[in-house]
């Protein structure tokens, strides 16, 4: 029997000193590509350490890491690494930074001169040729948000906004070798980002619970993550400077990542992708928009669903909890994100992502997707319910 570990990533919790020691690398002095947005590096006061490493010729620094990276950002990342031929990658930041790190790991040794055009990258993403045996670069992931779980998954998302498409880099060679969880890094997150990444983690955990490949162990881990997020995220938003609460959310997001790493996501993510691509809605919000509706559709076809709904009811029910936790920051309705009702049909047409929608325990039709989207179009304060 082939044994697959539940999580193959070496995980450690650390402090800012841990991060600085990682960058300085006084013992091994490996050639390393550092992926970290410059503004973020300035906030954490690690810019001088990175620049010193660049001057010494042992580091290359990609200092621009926009959200939802496209082929353009991947090409720029390969160019920034240049001819260093790194032995390792340190990806510091949110899921997008870690995704770029995974792309560099997968693609750097595939292309002549370690550089590629956007078209070359698109061809590789479409063909999946990166999965063929070749050299990958070891990744050390240092997440700065409590949400994406990218530090413990083999997936990376690359967006093609022009063609309204989304590609996944999906290979076990892209697991990080190490992940350092440093809750201090999340202290600087603004309120809206704290919320959206927390809801992304909730979506990952819930979708892992009901995904077709889910197991009892996955459900146990996912359920713990769900309970922790629903407990600690509201408290954190009321007390964002609490390192204790930041640590709790970091732990919850890590568990969520470990759960969906075994299952992949389902309908909520599949519906959320075009909402992000077409209207720029943050990924966590785009996925959370449909969580309540999809959970109800999936209930009868999800093993141990009573355990899930008992946990949700413990926190007042999912719909009420979502509205309460978002209050004063965003309203989880399409209209409030600037999405016109006339745009729903186009969202529906872009919804059916292979490997995500068909990973849902219930086959959801385009008509059902439209019905879900209409039900969350706007909010009625008088009734506290959705109004189509």
Automatic annotation (TrEMBL):
A GO term for molecular function: metal ion binding
KW Oxidoreductase (keyword) present: yes
Limits of the Alcohol dehydrogenase iron-type/glycerol dehydrogenase GldA domain: 14-179
Upper classification of the organism: Bacteria, Bacillati, Bacillota, Clostridia, Eubacteriales
UniProt-listed GO biological process terms: antibiotic biosynthetic process
Protein's organism: Candidatus Allocopromorpha excrementigallinarum
Name of the protein described by the UniProt record: Phosphonoacetaldehyde reductase
Keyword Oxidoreductase among record annotations: yes
Entry keyword set: Oxidoreductase
